[in-house]
Design brief:
The chain has two domains: about 55 residues, no CATH class; about 45 residues. The termini are far apart. It has about 100 residues and is of the alpha+beta class. The protein binds zinc ion. The site of zinc ion has 9 residues, from strand 2 and helix 1. Zinc ion binds next to strand 2 and helix 1.
């Protein structure tokens, strides 16, 4: 008796061996995701890839990130200021003590 093992790559979603699959490598920042998908389940990816030029205008998603970061920065500054506040009210003795350390 001969055992034959056949490896068949199937769609990650439906795992239907009858459906031809395509391999996709998706990258997002440092994330790399490999997917084998049939035509049906690859559709969202194909649609995204088909709209290459329309993805660029969507790039504001990237622009949003710095905006979010910029939004956070002032908040941090405000916190820093609040933290610095009490430091300024140090007494001369306290300042002298700090200088000695
Ligand atoms: Zn599928």
């Amino acid at each position: 008796m001969v055992e034959v093992h056949v490896k068949v790559r199937v769609c990650d979603k439906c795992r239907d061996v009858k459906r031809p699959i395509r391999s996709y490598t998706l990258t997002e920042g440092e994330r790399v995701v490999e997917r084998d998908l049939c035509e049906e389940h690859a559709r969202p990816i194909e649609e995204a890839m088909a709209g290459e030029s329309s993805i660029l205008p969507q790039a504001p998603a990237d622009v949003v990130t710095p905006k979010v970061a910029a939004g956070k920065a002032p908040a941090k500054k405000a916190t820093a200021r609040q933290r610095r506040g009490p430091t300024k009210t140090l007494t001369v003795e306290e300042i002298e003590a700090l200088k000695r350390t």
